Amino acid sequence: MKKVVVTGANGLLGQTLINLLLKDNGAYEVFGVSRGANRTDRTDFTYIDIDITKHDQLQNIVIKFAPDFIVNTAAMTNVDACEGQKEACTILNVDVVKNLAEISVKSNAHLIHISTDFIFDGEKGYYKETDTPNPLSYYGWSKLKSEQVLAKSNASYSVLRTILVYGLVNNMSRNNIVLWVKDTLESGKEITIVDDQYRMPTYVEDLAMACKIAMDKKAQGVYNISSNTLLSIYEMVLQIAEAFHLNKDLVKPISTATLNQVAKRPPKTGFDLSKTNRELGFYPKSFQEDLQRFKDSLI
């Protein structure tokens, strides 16, 4: 039985990954660490309420578990909040990763870490794992810094870069694009959405599966995980409306320039998935297909 520690166990990816691992007929013993009470509906794993920014406390607890794998799903991901709260962003997105790398070395554990398309400036799109990063926001900088921390460490690790993760779990503390669009249109409200930013959104079930594959293969280095089709955010919203049979006339396009967002966003990201296909044997689908899977899961 492989021992797995999941940080951010209460979050969207944390809960989804725990559910996936516990489906596997006792192949994994799971330890979840997160702030506050256990938000999952499960009692078949060990849950620890901990502030993971407490360096020594995290080390003592995780090393005691003697994990084979650590999956770090915890992060400060609100891009504008990171711009205004740089210290908090650095502590959670960089310092915690440095600590987890040390813990991984001491435990001889393989570390899976989640990164983002926002490490790029969005000038070209379809980024390969080897393309040169140039973050436009503090959030992007913090995630790039976390990757650099791992690259300089002696830890065995996989970095999974991802884009606009969506899905649904118990007692969610944060919304995501699909749920927000669905809820807003169901209530008959108009949505104004940018038509000049391009992304490849990621179904959380796929990201969790990629974490599991990276663990099982002990994949080394950086991998891109997203859906396989580049869409403007406006096109995404129209596809969400269509999938859930909602009123597309309520969706109005606007330009990024009119938004005055606190943090700059890359105009066009998206990933080249060929390394992921080749080395992980993982072949993501289109946003449209993933939306249907997500919709079917809600029934």
UniProtKB/TrEMBL annotation:
Functional summary from the UniProt entry: Catalyzes the reduction of dTDP-6-deoxy-L-lyxo-4-hexulose to yield dTDP-L-rhamnose.
- Which reaction is catalysed here? dTDP-beta-L-rhamnose + NADP(+) = dTDP-4-dehydro-beta-L-rhamnose + NADPH + H(+)
Q: In which pathway does it act?
A: Carbohydrate biosynthesis; dTDP-L-rhamnose biosynthesis
Q: What class of enzyme is it?
A: oxidoreductase
- Which residues does the UniProt record annotate as the domain RmlD-like substrate binding? 3-296
Q: Does the keyword Translocase apply?
A: no
Q: What is its EC number?
A: 1.1.1.133
What is the name listed in the Swiss-Prot or TrEMBL entry for this protein?
dTDP-4-dehydrorhamnose reductase
Task: Supply the Pfam families for this chain.
Answer: RmlD_sub_bind
Gene3D superfamilies for this protein? NAD(P)-binding Rossmann-like Domain
